[in-house]
Task: structure prediction
Amino acid sequence: MQRFGRNAYDNKIMNRGKVLELIATGRCRTRNDLVRSMGLTKMAISNIVTELLEKDFLTEEEKTPSKKAGRRSTVLAISPKAPKVIGLLLVRERVEVVLCDSCLNVSFRKSVLINQITDQDLIQIMFTLVEEALAFDSNVMGIGVSCMGPVDSEKGVLTEPPYFYGIRNLPIAKLLETRFSLPVRVNQDNVSGALEEYLYGNGKGHENMMLVGLERGVGCGIIQHGQIRDGFRSFKPEIGHVSIDVKGRRCVCGNRGCLEMYINSEEMKKQFEKICGIKEELADYYSICHESQFSEMMEDMMEKLSSGISTTINLFNLDLVLIGYDGVLLPEKYLNLLQEKINEKIFYSDSMRVIVRKPYYGADAQLLGGACNIIHAVFNGELGIDS
Result:
């Protein structure tokens, strides 16, 4: 249920979360930094920091001289004793777990490849991976799940993902919460990746941005005005189902000419195999084949991809696009070409320029984004830190 208004306790929880966010993401290092950033009094910041130090969420790492002679400033950091977070990635070919702190320093990671499995098989794999992470460190404040869509993130349910072995309506949050008695947050993989990059990566400083994931399909996560862009029942925008050809191929969604019918990893591999005459993994084609063999194909794909992305930008007025998953394999030449084509197509081209980059955390953005679903809930006060 949506809550309206906040009391003093709510403000306290939110302020503590904001302090943790500013320290964990590197935006602030000292109490004075926090005062300037949050607009609170020195006494209020001192009280919050003292409480977080006592709870072992923060530590005073060192002291550095200030500009005024004889005065020194305490530098704050996330404590090594602070609770960790488990991130779980669920996609068509694998389930992966990561254990990290709120600065995204990874201490444990494991992946299991999957193919033609049942829902019960999948549940057992998830349970086993989480158990192994907890065996490594049981001081955990929650489990964040990043999974292919569509996802009902309000209920934590993977609803009807295409091409996923017939698995439907999987209540991920309920299953994990019941098994491990920990808070669980579930979101779409590219939304999770966008959140991670907004907080920690190349999205810092961009309040309106999008991460586009190129895999078997094309997905996206949108941050608008610093918030995750949600729709009905918290379903997320689906850039892969933006039509770029109204008379094009029929998509599983029922539309024609959907972007992901032409731009996806499997389609790219088929094109490379046809052009280069060999069958390899997508990552290998760029080094094995001479660029003259595939430049025309890549230019055509960047043209199509720019059409879908520019349409989305025109709807949401975004100034940054990150190309993730298999998109991190793209040579910089084609990333620059994509940026050029997008800026040719956007409506506000005279007053804004869209930047196109790869995620700071590369192909791991969505995995670490799973952990960020919990970390963000702490930062925004949705999850308290009281033990």
Notes: The mean pLDDT is 91. The radius of gyration is 22 Å. The CA atoms of residues 33 and 184 lie 32 Å apart. The first helix runs from residue 8 to 24.
